[in-house]
Amino acid sequence: MLKVGDKLPAGALQEFIEVEGNGCSLGPNSFDVEKATAGKTVAIFALPGAFTPTCSAQHVPGYVKRAAELKAVGVDEVWCVSVNDAFVMGAWGREQKTADAVRMMADGSAEFTKATGLTLDLTARGMGVRSQRYSMLVQDGVVRTLNIEAPGKFEVSDADTMLKQAAQLKG
User: Fold this and answer.
1) How many other C-beta atoms lie within 10 A of the C-beta of residue 77?
2) Which terms does the UniProt entry file under GO BP (predicted)?
3) Taking the CB of the first residue and of the last residue of the chain, which one, N or C, has fewer CB atoms within 10 A?
4) Residue-level pLDDT at 151
5) Could you tell me the domains of the chain?
6) pLDDT at position 89
7) Phi, psi (5° rounding) for residue 102?
């Protein structure tokens, strides 16, 4: 399982791009995780699924609300990662009004999630393999903080915790 001090696993995540430009076409675009985090401080939070209750009511809105504060303490980007396809993540991002605040990164086949060792088996609930709920602060591709939630909890992966950690690291 991924831990503080580890480099993020190699792989790609997809993002649905709403406006064509900057070398990105309209629709799903693939981003190499290593290249996308190189030279940057990225706050990443992951959750079990788009449009699910806690994720939609608390997790994503908290990061949207705190995005400017995170950037003020040195976070270059905020990513939401979920085992959903880029179309679903794009629709959820529109519904959650994440533009310019949170990048909605799709891990459709759970390859990135499996590589981190942070999977959650929700097969019995009809959802298949998903991601555990967690957050991490990544600097130049290296995990500096990692907050993994206990099953069914939402206590340590929230935006307020990430903001405190990012401010401490900036120090």
Assistant:
1) 19
2) cell redox homeostasis; cellular response to oxidative stress; hydrogen peroxide catabolic process
3) C
4) 85
5) 12-170 (3.40.30.10)
6) 97
7) -135, 130
Which residue out of 43, 44, 50, 55 is catalytically annotated?
Answer: 55
Query: Under 8 Å CB-to-CB from 168, ≥6 apart: which residues?
Result: none
Distance CA 99, CA 119 (A): 27
* Predicted pLDDT at 123: 86
Looking at this protein, which amino acid is placed at residue 94? R
80 annotated active-site: no
Which helix (H) or strand (E) segment holds residue 15: the answer is strand 12-17
Are 158 and 144 contacting, i.e. CB atoms less than 8 angstroms apart?
no
The C-alpha atoms of residue 111 and residue 36 are separated, in whole angstroms, by 17
Return d(Cα 31, Cα 168) in angstroms, integer: 29
Both tokens of 122, joined, read 């929700």
pLDDT < 70 regions, the chain: 20-21
Beta strands 77-82; 103-106: pairing state: parallel
Residues 6+ apart with CB under 8 A from 97: 64
Query: Residue 102, Cβ neighbours under 10 Å: how many?
Result: 24
Determine the 3-state secondary structure of 72 from DSSP. Answer: helix
CA distance 98 to 67: 10
Q: Which two structure tokens, joined as six digits, stand for 125?
A: 């609930």
